[in-house]
């Protein structure tokens, strides 16, 4: 009984507030607010998750870093499984992608494929995003012995170590 009276009282107060607003010329909106892009959406309305993420990335200026991260995460499907087994992207800055190869042979292969790789990455990221691919070979090289034992004299013509 008390709930029915409370609901009736609430409806009565709402009607009174609407009438007061109408007298002042402040009628409530009948159309939803429009966003600058022409989309109808009130700020409190629910929206699709993907759209919310895109809006957040655009508002914060994170679109390009997110796209780069996506490419790095999908490296295998972008460059192919054979190349991806022996290479990995390290960084992206100022239009330059640095790729590390696990051997000098694969580093040479990536250098030969650099222009194709730039085209493929720009297909994913947008034209002109990647300008150059730099390749690094494997970290470290053959271990040099340490200590006082050395061969005296100059290196010979067939000496390929070092």
How do you describe this structure in short?
Residues 10-23, 30-44 have a biased composition (Basic and acidic residues). This is UPF0232 protein. With 162 residues, this protein is mainly α.
Please tell me about this protein's structure.
The chain has 162 residues and is mostly helical. It has a domain at 60-136: GMP Synthetase, Chain A, domain 3 (2-Layer Sandwich). The chain has helices at 2-24, 49-60, 63-73, 75-79, 81-84, 104-112, 114-125, and strands at 87-93, 96-101, 132-136. A hairpin with a 2-residue loop joins strand 1 (87-93) and strand 2 (96-101). The longest helix is centred in the N-terminal third of the chain and has 23 residues, at 2-24. It comes from Sphaerimonospora thailandensis.
Helical percentage: 40-55%
CATH architectural arrangement of the domain at 60-136: 2-Layer Sandwich
Radius of gyration: 32 Å
Question: How many H/I helices?
Answer: 7
CATH topology of the domain at 60-136: GMP Synthetase, Chain A, domain 3
Q: Given the helix and strand composition, which structural class is it?
A: mainly alpha
Q: List the secondary-structure elements in sequence, H or E.
A: HHHHHEEHHE
Number of strands: 3
Strand content: 5-15%
Task: Please write the CATH class name of the domain at 60-136.
Answer: Alpha Beta
Termini separation: 96 Å
Largest sheet: 3 strands, mixed
**Which spans have pLDDT < 50 for at least 5 consecutive residues?**
none
InterPro entries: DciA-like
Protein name: UPF0232 protein
Organism: Sphaerimonospora thailandensis
Biased composition (Basic and acidic residues): 10-23, 30-44
